Structure formats: structure tokens, C-alpha cells
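Justification of computing resources. Each target in the renewal requires a structure prediction run like the one illustrated here; the chain below, 328 residues long, is used simply to show the kind of job we budget for.
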Amino acid sequence: MHTQHPIGSGFGAATTTVEVIAGIQLTGKHAIVTGGYSGLGLETVRTLAAAGAEVIVPARDIARARHALNGIKGVEVVEMDLMDTNSIDRFAAQMLAAGRPLDLLINSAGIMATPLVRDGRGFESQFATNHLGHFQLTLRLWPALQRAGSARVVSVSSKGHRYSPVVFEDMMFERRAYDRWAAYGQSKTANILFAAELDLRGRTDGIRAFSLHPGSILGTGLERHLSMEELRQGGVLDEYGKPIRDPHRQLKTVEQGAATLVWCAISPQLDDRGGVYCENCDIASIMPAHGEGADMLNGSFVSGVLPYAIDPHAAARLWDVSEQLLGI
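Resulting C-alpha cells:
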């Protein structure tokens, strides 16, 4: 039986992190949140810490992270760069040496619609950051996730997964023209496939995995490579350059966007479930395939996940290919 269908959680598009965390105590729990010093990640850190969790935020820019997280109790910043394989290994080794269980791993860091950049290995930057970096981090932290006995790994994907499946024949745009939205879409599809396969492989160790679309949230820094004109045409900015907020069209505040992230991480409604793609604090439905390629910034919202992003064969293949690419 496929579990990819809404469960009627009682929450919705306008639900905030405060509502989702109400009544949940996380004292004694340990969490790692990538991208935890800006946007959705920062709001997630704030919410988990307020509920009593000890949170570690890996950061490339230590000073900026400490400044952003200043005043939030129970948070520690540790150096790590998602595009540097040695940096990920060092960070993971440090975490494992501490001997603590890892109850929550929130893979929230990401980049979007960037110009073509390749890392030192020749990997395209959106795929390297959004998928491969988090894949390596999760596998390296596996013993700590096992130690928790009941852990969750949450991957922040996007409705932008509709721009592209994972193109296994040319993932790094070596033989086709680079398209920044196709590259973004491919990396976001990879996030969903990764969660599905991770849940399958982690279940016997008490590790469950989820992916999600948070909404279109301006002001997180994710939109830095888009012009004002593109944002205006996309219906996310008004004529005065101010963000339009309309949760039912997925134009959300940071608190509303991070709510689905937090819900995936802590909701008892998801106990004994996993591998699913969520939106609006519920499990999403499966979208008809003709929803493919719709514009990320057109102010409309087609709900759900495309079949190619939850295809078990593609998920297993992506796992194998990722291991090969990283030499894990």
C-alpha cells in the first residue's frame, strides 16, 4: 500500500511553527540543522530549541552564524561546508566522537537557480550542495542516528521538483546546455528520492525520513539569484516591491514555511510513517504527470508530488550513483 496520500492532519497552509510545536517537549533530544542560521533553517532552530532540544548548526561562515543565532539557548555552531567533502567528514567525525545520539537531522541548507558553478570535483553546484552534500552528511552520521533508536531525517525539497527528474544520463550538465531551473529541479527531485530510499534502508535502525515543500518564501536569501523583475512577474512581489503573502497560493511567511519542516521532524502523526513528501503540514497527494514543468514563480500552486520523484527504482538508482560519485 502506498502511503503517499494526505492524512487530514488538522493543520493547513497558514499553520505556523508555534502551532505545530504546541505541547511537544524535546528536552534531552539532539538535533542538527543545516542552513540553520538563515531563513527556514533559523526558524526551525529557534522552534526546536524553544521546545528544549540541543541544536547544532553546521556553518561555513561561523561569525555570521553566531551573530544570527545569538541569544538562542541550547544552540552550538560548528564549522562545515556542504560543498567540501573533507569538511563534511571532519564535522561528522566530531559529532560521532561526542558519542551522543542524533534524534533529528534537518537537511535545510540549499541554493536555487544559480549560474553554472562546478566544485573541485567538477560537480554542478546545485546538485552538489542540495543533494550530494546532504547524502554524504547523513551517511556519515548514521551511527548517531542509530543510537537514537527513533530518529528522523528531514530533507527540504520544493514544488520546484517539477522542473526536472534526475537525468541520470547527464546529471552534471556536461553534455547538455545548462539550465538553472532544470538543475534546481533535478536537485529537489533528488531530495525526495533520497528521503524515500533512506526511509526504506533506515527503518530497521529506527530511522525514518521525510521530504517537503515549505512554500515560496521571500526573504530567506534563496532568491538572491533572481531579479526584482523576475520576482514581480512571478507574482511574489507587488508593484511596490513588497512580498505578497497568501498562504493558500503558497506565498508564506518564514513561520508558515518552516511549519511543515518542524511538523515532519516532530509530529506524532507521522509515527510509523516515512519516506513521504509533505506540504502544508500534511502528506501531499500524488500529482498527475501533466503538472510537470509548471513555473515556480507564477503565483499559482499545483499541489502534490510528481510520480517520478517517488519512483522506487529511481530512488534506489540515485542512492547507488551517489555512493559511486562520493566514493562511499
